[in-house]
Design goal:
- The chain is α/β, with parallel strands linked by helices.
- The chain has 4 domains: 132 residues, Rossmann fold, CATH 3.40.50; 71 residues, Orthogonal Bundle (Helicase, Ruva Protein, domain 3); 90 residues, Up-down Bundle (Zinc Finger, Delta Prime, domain 3), CATH 1.20.272.10; 70 residues, post-AAA+ oligomerization domain-like (Orthogonal Bundle), CATH 1.10.3710.
- The protein is built from 21 helices and 5 strands.
- The chain is elongated.
């Protein structure tokens, strides 16, 4: 049996003293956690499980700085378990096996269980995630995986089925302000004696995107800047320099990416030009690929506007070409122009409906024969076989339209396109009605 380390606590205290403010102010119990009300409310499943000291393997899914690491540590503290931490960006199967071996020895020696916190679990390959399964399944470890990505897409099904998924949310501005005030008031772990104007505190709270870690560390830097200038309190200027720029919560490869582009498309489709511009510039400021945005506009121009305003497709394609040639930041003008035009254009999904109806008709009539009078009659042999016989040339009729069968026998009478009632398509509907009367169709 090894001798107790009499100086371990003192060394830990020295390490903590040099840690960033966000680390020093890490909550020591559930009551110190700010935000996450759904997880930490009285009677909530997560809180009940932690307080009972009977943790289960779980995935904590949420944005950066929402407290995933803190919650993982509190899971270990409340259950009396050892806390081991790996990052999926640097760890491999060998590291996982070493943790499982150590955790096994702890159980065999009566030293309790191990909580393994795996940060960015979504970055583990399938093989690496599979290496965790025996330890999770046998209870050798309590796995707490943290991810900013949707775990149902990024984590293997076997691991998901053995874990409980808990969602963490970005902190509200009021929560961020509370964290900073705590840091100012804490004489040991915080920044005692620091002062901040209400205006600067509010600015910080609204600029960090709900990221507690960023808020605290930026505030600590702002305090240092203010002290270096001999100023009695942190102001707007120091906050701005500490942050450099407004932080936009956005991950080009993650869940937030899909949520924002979805909001953008739905805002344009819904003709809310202001919301469309908000989401457009959220993506641009976050560094989204402008060609990705332009491609979505091209699709939307046909899918949601179509023949209600045929010019929309040309404008969307022009915007794509513009950003392809000049890029950003100047390309933002073309994207903004296209977004405003498409958002305010008349809308119709008749083309999307026509595509679906056409596919169903084709699937329902596989191998349908082309009517003889519509077949190619380019050669004498084809004409001798009757190809093209009986075909009536529409231009010979003064109306430019004449009645004859164009669909195969199996699909005769099928109506695949129905014109909308908005914009230019309303005019098209009138013309289509005249054509239908000649062709004998009941649309």
């Amino acid at each position: 049996m090894t001798e107790p380390d009499l100086f371990a606590a003192e060394r830990a205290e020295r390490r903590t003293a040099h840690a960033p403010l966000a680390t020093r102010m890490r909550p020591r119990n559930l009551d110190e956690v700010v935000g996450q009300r759904d997880l930490l409310a009285a009677g909530a499943a997560f809180r009940t499980m932690v307080e009972a000291g009977r943790p289960v393997s779980m995935i904590l899914w949420g944005p950066p700085g929402s407290g995933k690491t803190t919650l993982a540590r509190l899971v270990a503290v409340n259950s009396g378990a050892r806390f081991d931490q790996l990052s999926a960006t640097s760890a491999g199967v060998k590291d996982v096996r070493e943790v499982l071996a150590i955790a096994t020895r702890r159980i065999e020696n009566g030293d309790g269980r191990t909580v393994l916190f795996l940060d960015e679990i979504h970055r583990f390959t399938k093989a690496q995630q599979d290496a965790l399964l025996p330890g999770v399944e046998d209870g050798i470890i309590v796995l707490v995986g943290a991810t900013t990505e949707n775990p149902f897409f990024e984590v293997n099904s076997p691991l998901i089925s053995r874990s409980t998924v808990f969602r963490t949310e970005a902190l509200a501005p009021d929560d961020v302000e509370e964290l900073v005030r705590r840091a100012i008031d804490d004489p040991v772990r915080g920044v005692p004696g620091a002062a901040v104007s209400e205006e600067a505190l509010e600015d910080l709270a609204h600029r960090v995107g709900g990221d507690a870690r960023l808020a605290l560390n930026a505030f600590e830097l702002a305090v240092t800047i203010a002290e270096g200038r001999g100023r009695p309190e942190v102001g707007i200027e120091e906050i701005g320099e500490a942050l450099q720029r407004r932080v936009i919560r956005y991950d080009k490869g993650g869940d937030r990416h899909y949520d924002v582009i979805s909001a953008f498309i739905k805002s344009v489709r819904g003709s809310d030009v202001d919301a469309a511009l908000y989401w457009l510039h959220t993506m641009i400021e976050a560094g989204e690929d402008p060609k990705f945005i332009a491609r979505r506009l091209v699709i939307l121009a046909s899918e949601d506007i179509g023949l209600a305003d045929p010019a929309a497709l040309g404008i969307a394609i022009d915007a794509f070409r513009a950003v392809e040639v000049i890029g950003l930041p100047e390309g933002a003008y073309a994207l903004t122009e296209a977004t405003v035009y498409l958002a305010t254009a008349a809308k119709s999904n008749s083309l999307a409906e026509a595509i679906s109806a056409s596919r169903r008709a084709v699937e329902a009539t596989p191998g349908a024969d082309v009517p003889m009078h519509l077949r190619s009659a380019a050669t004498a042999g084809q004409r001798q076989m009757g190809h093209g016989a009986g075909y009536d040339y529409p231009h010979d009729d003064p109306r430019g339209v004449l009645a004859q069968q164009y669909l195969p026998d199996e699909a005769t009478g099928a109506i695949l396109y129905r014109a909308g009632t908005h914009g230019r398509e309303a005019e098209l509907a009138e013309r289509l009605g005249r054509i239908d009367r000649i062709l004998g169709k009941d649309r």
